[in-house]
Amino acid sequence: EKVGKLIEKGSFGSDRILRLDTPTFANDAGCLSFKKEWIPVGILNICFANPNPSVTSVASKFLMDSNITNVDLLGLQYITTVADCFLGMCSSLKTIDLTCLKNISWIGVSFLHKCSSLKIVDFCSFEKVTHTNMSFLSCCSSLKTISNISGLRN
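^ that's the sequence the OP posted. Answer follows.
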């Protein structure tokens, strides 16, 4: 079953990007869920689009896929709560722009856990974060730069 729109060219310069309509994957309580089993074979880049103020949280084990190399989170700009294993085990993830997560205040266990290809993380938009859990950025063996860590001062 087709879960998103496959586009030929996108912001990553890749030939194959799966563009997903964010509200389509949220339940009645506004909790977004997305599982790796829903990704067509060969897709390495995912873009969450169409932000919606009714989608305010992300379920646990969100998009735990070791093949994904790039994720565009633009459609998650109203998210306030991120459950356990947000993009955890995404060992091929090379780039992620967290700036659109400007409303996030609560982060569960294993945030970006085992993202061993990720080199740079910028927390400039995380000023509303009041709670983080263990395994925050743990096992990110290639991580070279953490920018704007003061964004986590709360």
